[in-house]
Amino acid sequence: QVQLVESGGGLVQAGGSLRLSCAASGRTFSSYPMGWFRQAPGKGREFVAAITWNSGSTYYADSLKGRFTISRDNAKNTVYLQINSLKPEDTAVYYCAAVRTSNMAKAEYWGQGTQVTVSS
Q1: Is 40 exposed, middle or buried (0-12, 13-18, 19+ CB in 10 A)?
Q2: Sheet order of strands, 18-25 included
Q3: How far apart are CA 51 and CA 35, in angstroms?
């Protein structure tokens, strides 16, 4: 199993940046591809980005390419999401997940989420 704890969310003005972190525990973290998802108020949870176990490949939702960057440090058991040029529509709870190798838009394990609020 993998336990995930997100941090780094908060209130930020439009145009600002945030880096979200997700600390993982469990011996198998480095073997999992990892992903970030988000859920805006009144909407379903959507895929944001994913990264393979060795950082060899990254994947992004088409609508979010360019402002979001996913990365990981297996030595620190941590995955990151850098968000630049934040927009009010980025307001959401952001979730880290250990995702399936066969479909990285599907999660095996979830964190509890971190709130990101972008003011205009």
Answers
A1: middle
A2: 3-7, 18-25, 78-83, 68-73
A3: 6
Q: Beta strand pairing status for 114-119 and 10-13? A: parallel
For residue 33, the Cα-to-chain-centroid distance in whole angstroms is 12
Whether the Cβ atoms of residue 8 and residue 20 lie closer than 8 Å to each other:
yes
Q: How far apart are CA 120 and CA 100, in angstroms?
A: 36
Contact 79, 94 (CB under 8 A): no
pLDDT tens-digit map of 102-118: 999 899 999 999 999 99
CA-based nearest residue to 104, from 96, 112, 116, 94: 96
Contact 66, 90 (CB under 8 A): no
- Confidence band of 30 (pLDDT split at 50, 70, 90): confident
The total of other beta-carbon atoms located within 10 Å of residue 5's CB is 14
